[in-house]
Amino acid sequence: MGRWWAGIDWSWGLQDFVIIDEEGKVVLHLRVEESREGVEQILGALRALNPTSHRFSRRQVPIAIEDGTRLLVAELQRRRQPVVVIPPAVTSRYRGRHGAAVSKSDRGDAALLADIIRQNPGRRSFLPENSDQAAAIAVLARTQASSTQAARAIMLRLRSHLGLYFPAAVEAWSGTQHGLRRPEARAVLALAPTPRQAAALSKRRLHDTLAAAGRTRLLDEEAGRLRDLFAASALRQRPETEQAMGERTRLHLAELSIACQHAEHLSNLADTRFSAHPHHRIYRSFPACGPIVAARLFAEIGDAPERFPTGRHLRAYAGTAPITWSSGSSHTVVHRTVCNRALKATVHQWAFGALTRSPGCRALYDARRQRGDGYAAALRHVGNRLLSGLHHCVRTDQLYQEHVMFPTADGRDEVTGGQDEHLRVTLGREP
């Protein structure tokens, strides 16, 4: 019985679908729409490859595509057709293998995608079959991250604009968490967007504004600090210019408020959806793994049981595992750049927060710094350990335990008193 591979070059309109045989020759080429009829054409073509054999199934033919988020891919996965996602950068590197003159066409790209998985059996993994619940959480968590980035970008534009005519407003919340994104900062600036208006505010008015924005602690002290700061002598723009710049500040504030509201709403929605998932209690049991961090980690990792067979696979996917370059007498270990960057950034944030919430993480970080590692390298080791522990806990359905993750100095488990070599290997600890 022969073997076949397929590739789809997606585009707006018609998609090129190509099937190749064991020798890499094109045996079928179709142009189909991204619709139910197009999916039926694809599946029908796969079934017709060997209609006389009862041992043949269309599911034995993997399909390669560059974009795994398309509706076409979602429908193929719903029909349980194996799909392999090939990054566009990989496709570009393979183009020169078929001839000195590199050309490009939709049909040629579809055949090239199929040929990549033909030449690399076992090297390209199928698109993970996450549950619908996990896919929904991923959409919400990633959208929340985008909204947060948008709010931060707007805040930076606002801060730059305020520096032109109202530097006291920048100084007022400099160094505080979230800065000008804080509800109280936005409320005060909306009330007084110019230095002259801010200087005229009374302590009582500032107190009421801060309270209405949600601040509950040290209201009198904060209101007095802001009043003194705004009333201090400072350089100012001319009155009409200052008023016009205040109107622009109102525009930035309106944009910032909308972005912050969307980010907060999506954060609550993602946490609510994730709290109903069986993995929620495991993620939240880890130190510094709050609602946002937990949802973002789960969004990139998913719940497909066989996606990461070992902790090493997960660490490589997150970019925390190093890469070794060895050739002759040259031997170099460098950090990984080809990875899921969203997951890598979340793990960095997670590891940083764990330094003050987990004695074991802090001890590991300090030990790596003493060995000569820089800040980022030491933090990657902490992220490595946390990811290994998360992988182990999810696979075994256990909650995080500090004394198991970081046993005593003699290597003995504080509970059983015995050596746990298997756990050390599972968690990726260095000997």
Quick take:
The protein has 19 helices and 7 strands. The protein has helices spanning 36-47, 71-78, 88-94, 106-119, 132-165, 167-172, 183-191, 195-199, 203-212, 219-231, 239-275, 280-284, 291-301, 311-318, 341-354, 359-370, 375-396, 402-405, 421-426, and strands at residues 5-9, 14-20, 26-33, 63-65, 83-85, 323-327, 330-334.
Protein described:
The chain is α/β, with parallel strands linked by helices and 431 residues long. It folds into 3 domains: 5-127, ATPase, nucleotide binding domain (Nucleotidyltransferase, domain 5, 2-Layer Sandwich); 135-273; 281-426, no CATH class. It has helices at 36-47, 71-78, 88-94, 106-119, 132-165, 167-172, 183-191, 195-199, 203-212, 219-231, 239-275, 280-284, 291-301, 311-318, 341-354, 359-370, 375-396, 402-405, 421-426, and strands at residues 5-9, 14-20, 26-33, 63-65, 83-85, 323-327, 330-334. The strands form 2 sheets. It has a 5-stranded mixed beta sheet with strand order 3-2-1-4-5, sandwiched between helices. The chain has a two-stranded antiparallel sheet with strand order 6-7. Helix 5 (132-165) packs antiparallel against helix 11 (239-275). The longest helix has 37 residues, at 239-275. The chain is globular.
